[in-house]
Amino acid sequence: MMEKKKNIPEKDIQKPAKEKLDELVKALSEKNAEIEKLQNELENLKIESAKRQEQKNAEIEKLKKELEDLKIESIKIQEHFSKSRKTLAKQAEQQVMKEKKRLMKDLLEIFDNFERALNTLGRNDRASAKEGIKLIHNQIQQFLNQHGIKEMELKNKKFDPALCEIGKITESEKEANIILEVLRKGYYLNDEILRTAMVEVAVPKNITIKGGN
Questions:
Q1: Residue 170 phi/psi, 5° resolution?
Q2: Assessment of whether the complete model's pTM goes beyond 0.85
């Protein structure tokens, strides 16, 4: 006797296929979610990259502007320096000319007195001429003092080759190398030697001077 086939419900037959389909749908959904996530990340990276590029471009433009400003400032400084140098040179020239005029005026006053003294000599008024010459001498001495020129005090001092040169050697009872007379005066300009003096120097008696007369 043949066994009778069991009738399987249609819903039970479709169940494995449905489960498989659901799994595929789920897997597809997950993949789509991953793709969307990756797309979002990629988009964010693009946006971030664009922002960074904008920042770099902004920094580059800023540096360009700073460089241009520095160039302009450098040109201004050079122009200012050039103008200042010209101004200082002009002021120095004016100061030199001003000082020169002042010196010449002082010399002209001395020259005027010298001419007066000469005129007095022409009238045979020797006393007045002598007074005039004394006045000129005093004026010249005052003029030299005003401009930092002072006479070296050398008489009766030890000979110093840095300050003077020997013009004459004389036997004397005084100590050797003592300056007996100043033949030509020496002068300082402030603290520097302007002109050395010419002097007569003492040597002990009975000493032969080689090369002397």
A1: -135, 135
A2: no
